[in-house]
Amino acid sequence: MGRTTPNLQLQRLPLNIVGSNKFGRYAKISFEKSYNFFISDGWMVPTPGHLKVLNIDPLSEGRGVFTSTRGNFMLAVIGSGVYAIRDEIQKVGRTIPVGDITEGIATLIGTLDTFSGDVFIDENDAEQIAICDKKDIYIYNYDAATFQKVTLDFLPGYVTFQDGYFIAPDLDRNQWRLSQINEGTVWPAGSQNVGELESKPDKCRACVRVPGKGNQLFVMGSTVTESWNDIGYKLFPYYRTNSFNIDYGCVNQSTIAAGDKFVIWLARNEQSAPVIMYSEGGQPRPISTDGINFALKQLEDPEDSYGFIYENEGHLFYQLTFRKDKVTYLYDFNTNKFFFLSDEKLENHIAKKVTFFANDYYFISLIDGNIYRLSSDFTTADGGHVPRLRITNTVRLPDSDLFIGKRMGFTIEQGDSKNLNRIDLSISNNGGITFGNFVKHDIQALPNRENKFTEYDFGISNEMTFQLRFWGDGRFLCKDGYVDVAKKAS
Amino acid sequence: MPFTARELIVKAYYLSGIVSRKFQTVTGDQLTDGLSLLNEALATEGIDGQLIPYYQEYTFTAVPGQEVYFIPGLIEPETLTFNIGDVRYSMQYRQRRKYFGTSRADNIRSLPYEWHIERKLNGADLYMFFLPNVDYPLKLWGKFKLDDITDLCEDLLLKYDRYFIKYLTYALAREIADEWGMPLPTETKEELARLEETLTYVSPMDLTTKKRSTFRSGDVINYGYANLGTGWLP
């Protein structure tokens, strides 16, 4: 009786509800993660959802998608079928209900010999669209409405267009080939049309024009990338930049994407594991950090990967999916931060390749042969739940002392949706290795707009990591928060 | 509905703030520690017995010629009487100095009229004088130490009242917080203080004063009664 207990000393620590993936080499270093969120103006906002707009071939797989700027149509390769899709697609899901209505909007224009595998597409100025399935090149002339397979003496890969040429690597050799100018059906074998990857013994994997750099072309092997420029030589129009080359090649051509000024791809050389590189025409810069490089090194099959760039209301994203490893990274060029994207099962996102057409983004998927619209207008995955998840930084005291978590809170938009939204909160006391049970919090429904989330009493620990799972079909907007901790007064 | 030791320990962990009621589960190791700390808390109450609300009767039989009797678990004696037939005789408590330090004839066997207690390990030694001449039935009233709890599933309601279980819960919360070197949450600390204050007055020692007249012999047996009247008054 009358025993005195020590006094409390309360301390407020920051809790970064707003944050990205930190990719600590080990969980103890950082277990910070964000699934299906990105950062906008200091708030966590949901990544765009998607809606299936065309049921083309549910049993097949999307292989390639492309927008013809000159022809004003979208071209999609689903299974073995090549479909031209008109801009009426923008009405689907708006004035036209979503359903089995491919007729009239998607038209089968040709058939490939192959049924699966990645397809690369580009167009020239002669109303020709080249479609390469890494076995053959097909030319679709939308003006003449012809579709033909080209006779080739090489194994073509990633096809691109520059200065009137279709350019394709020879996947069997260190060579890359130019088509006849504005004639994709003719690929001469003479020295005027055959370039070579010269700086390393390698095979050619892709030729990529560098955006914003005029005639510059990156010729990629598996361990090296050379910079070439079309200077119009008669003997061979391209001239290799001798002063530098990039000592990284390409893991998979399907990860190559181009922004308005740069090329980004999953790179590798004979001495290093995969890294994400980007170049504006000069020496490349890795955008991956120690942590993500470590994560990339752990991948089981980095070759099974897909990357593309798209813009969402001012944010430029590079989305990189590793299918076999079931993970998708989203890199935001505006904030230079990485996030996770996922499907309902917290596995990889289903988008394989995206294209911008009729003021919307559309993608083909890894799971079926349908066309999806990608937009911030949607907060669901075609009506399904998008698991939005945030694992915060691990809260520690500078001296690693024990503390009792008394309270945490952050600002959140509430009362803005008729849907019942919910947040589940769980904590980890071991730096994110294991989490405890989840405590459910309903988000205020319309029109109760109280904008604060608060929870109390988290027990004793010397490190505390918070995991928030956001459930519901509405949108979630969150701002940074705090944790009040109590320790023995010194 | 039973209230088990496990429930008490779990609740104490929550009250201490060491384990979160909503986000965590009290682990097996924590339950084991909690049981140990609970027994420590029970033992702490046995230091002075002030917060133990229960007085108990302890009966035993005098052994002719034996002065010292071990009373297990006794913390605080209050009264001691012996019986001759149906008549109960009170005995006088003597402080240590008076009991052990005054002159007396050690070998007299008669009615035991004075007694003294010395705390010992796990109980107390009861001294009585005169040495009993026959096997008188004796009754001692006092506070006894609380038994250890060894089974997490033990129903505490069979041993303690609700209010005392509540006090034990808060007391254990303090032990747990102390064990972790953390302060007790303010609200828990305040409630514990309130319970302690209340409990002190549930069964306090009987401190009623007795007036003794200079002209009366008193109402207890004394040396003369014991030896001359052998318990029987004229």
CATH class of the largest domain in chain A: Mainly Beta
Number of helices of chain B: 6
**pLDDT under 50 segments of chain B (min length 5)?**
none
What is the radius of gyration of chain A? 26 Å
- Briefly note the CATH topology name of the largest domain in chain A: Methylamine Dehydrogenase, Chain H
Count of structural domains of chain B: 2
Helical segment count of chain A: 1
| The CATH superfamily title of the largest domain in chain A | YVTN repeat-like/Quinoprotein amine dehydrogenase
Features of the shown structure:
heterodimer, A: 490 residues, mainly beta, Jelly Rolls, Methylamine Dehydrogenase, Chain H, 2 domains, five-stranded antiparallel β-sheet, 1 helix, B: 234 residues, alpha+beta, four-stranded antiparallel β-sheet, four-stranded mixed β-sheet, 6 helices, 10 strands, elongated
Short overview:
Chain A is mostly beta strands and 490 residues long.
What report would you give on this structure?
The complex is a heterodimer of chains A (490) and B (234). By secondary structure, chain A is an all-beta fold. Helices cover 2% and strands 49% of the residues of chain A. In chain A, a hairpin with a 2-residue loop joins β3 and β4. The longest helix of chain A has 8 residues. Chain B is of the alpha+beta class and 234 residues long. A four-stranded antiparallel beta sheet of chain B has the order 1-10-3-4, with no helix packed on it. Chain B has a four-stranded mixed beta sheet with strand order 2-8-7-5, with no helix packed on it. In chain B, β7 and β8 form a beta hairpin. In chain B, α1 packs across α2, α2 crosses α4 and α4 crosses α5. Chain B is elongated and about 75 Å long. Chains A and B meet through β35, β36, β38 and β40 of A and α4 and α5 of B.
